[in-house]
Amino acid sequence: MAEQLTNAYLETSPSVPSWLNKGDNAWQMTASTLVALQSMPGLVILYGSIVKKKWAVNSAFMALYAFAAVLICWVLLCYRMAFGDKLLPFWGKGAPALGQKYLLQQAAVPESTHYYKNGSIETHMTKPLYPMASLVYFQFTFAAITMILLAGSVLGRMNIKAWMAFVPLWLIFSYTVGAFSLWGGGFLYHWGVIDYSGGYVIHVSSGIAGLTAAYWVGPRVKSDRERFPPNNVLLMLAGAGLLWMGWSGFNGGAPYAANIDASIAVLNTNICAATSLLVWTTLDVIFFGKPSVIGAIQGMMTGLVCITPGAGVVQSWAAIVMGILSGSIPWFTMMILHKKSTLLQKVDDTLGVFHTHAVAGLLGGLLTGLFAEPVLCELLLPVKGSRGAFYGGSGGVQLLKQIGGALFVIGWNLVSTTIILLGIGLFIPLRMPDHQLIIGDDAVHGEEAYALWGDGEKYDPTKHAGSLYSEQTRPNQHVNGAIGVTVQL
Q: What does the pLDDT look like over 208-218, one tens digit per residue?
């Protein structure tokens, strides 16, 4: 045993190849764990507590299922569709990432070599100093959280069987396209679009796909749209806290190394989130007379989303500016514009994922096109001389690239999500039947979140005061959020 332990720490041995950097590997696995904790249990807890009591189990289960299903699809096919050899300019060749020979070799992103126009190499292939297994798992955690964020738009009415079919199909035909195009060496990567850690790949895609899915699945029952209070505010804060703290791994792991760029990204992430939360809360107090816990969580989230596309390439003063804008512009679209927009009123986006992720992610991508700092860009980006418009030179071109990248991600997700859902709808109803929508978890899963009526006793409206139906239709005089968006102030 002692000899084996010693061999593990030799400069070179079968378990310590010459290319391995233990610090980088340790940080990448830590970052992966932090991102995984954002989903499981972070968003599982957040979703299970932010929804109405009758949907707590179903909402948590949708997130739990997605986390497990994405992992299996990821290693069977999807990792190499997103980070493997090129099949098309926007898609990699799918193949398993399961064999020992593949997983123990040095990590590499095959299509990441960047060339000058004359054919000479501008930036060499991305080859992190740890095994492929670490990279496969790290990228899985990003795919999983994207899927779970999308679920926030259809909570409280999507048929669970339709969701089970939707998860692998959307992962294959939508997520892998964005990931390869922007990160895996696809055409947007080589064009020079900056998406440091998923403002476009994760947040714009989940927000647009979520809104599209909400449209095709259809709305919740009328009583749920009119009154949808969280069932546990303190537990909701616990889930939000896991989401915030886990974001250090989200943005800190993006450079694929424990380097100085990871440090600036972690600091910027927390600065922007804090600023955005404070701005959102301030606006709530100014316009509604009191601070809202849900509002603070929404502000925290928009700050985290907004900084993501530029966390490692903007200065910390820019992170504050981005936080101010992410705490105010999505607030305006959610609290003001949503109420006035006929289109947004028609689409029942349960948790307002369009506002917190699509709007905030697009805002972050465009602000990155303004504030990307040349020295920080040089540390990470494949296209030399990249800079934001604020720094002159070619910065104006960078902003145009950011717009172009956003348009591709938006268009692809609109079309792919629509086709997938219409295809599923031919075989499985996308929306639950009305009798399940009225009852909730007990009808869908045969389980309830809380045993509030005695030791193991089932809830019976004929025996217990305050029937389920009267609870659903009781008016709330303190709702300031837009219909279809869970915002109770």
A: 999 999 999 99
Dist. CA 282–CA 324, nearest whole Å: 11
Q: Is 20 helix (H, G, I), strand (E, B) or coil?
A: coil
**The residue to which tokens 């126009």 are assigned:** 117
The DSSP letter of residue 77 is I
Structure tokens at 152: 């926030």
Whether the Cβ atoms of residue 192 and residue 132 lie closer than 8 Å to each other: no
Model confidence over 121-131: pLDDT tens digits? Answer: 988 999 999 99
Tokens of 3: 């000899």
pLDDT above 90 for 68:
yes
Q: Which of 303, 307, 289 is nearest to 331 (CA)?
A: 303
Residues 239 and 251: their CA atoms lie apart, in Å, by: 19
Q: In which element (H, E) is residue 15 found?
A: none
Report the predicted TM-score, pTM, of the whole model to 2 decimal places: 0.89
Residue the block writes with tokens 């992170």? 319
Number of helices (H) and strands (E) in the chain: give both, helices first.
26, 4
The residue extents of the domains of the chain are 22-93+101-107+126-435
Q: How distant, in Å, are the alpha carbons of 30, 390, 477 from that of 150?
A: 25, 33, 30
For residue range 16-26, what is the model confidence (pLDDT) as tens digits?
Answer: 888 999 999 99
For domain 22-93+101-107+126-435, which architecture applies? Orthogonal Bundle (1.10)
Token duo for residue 306:
């907004």
Per-residue pLDDT tens digits for 266-285: 999 999 999 999 999 999 99
Query: Do 274 and 323 touch, CB atoms closer than 8 A?
Result: yes
Q: Are 80 and 99 in contact (CB under 8 A)?
A: no
- Determine contact, residues 353/153, Cβ cutoff 8 Å: yes
Task: Annotate 317-371 with DSSP letters as a single string.
Answer: HHHHHHHHHHTTHHHHIIIIIHHH-HHHHHS--TT-HIIIIIIHHHHHHHHHHHH
| pLDDT at res. 342 | 86
Compute the distance between CA of residue 295 and CA of residue 53 in angstroms, rounded to an integer: 19
Other CB atoms closer than 10 Å to residue 275's CB: what's the count? Answer: 23
Cis? peptide before 433, omega within 30° of 0: no
Q: Which of 318, 292, 295, 291 is nearest to 306 (CA)?
A: 318
Query: What pLDDT was estimated at residue 478?
Result: 43
Cβ–Cβ under 8 Å, residues 76 and 98:
yes
Please state the rounded mean pLDDT for residues 298-325: 96
Q: Alpha helices of 113-259 — where are they, by DSSP H?
A: 132-151, 160-170, 176-182, 187-191, 205-217, 222-226, 233-252
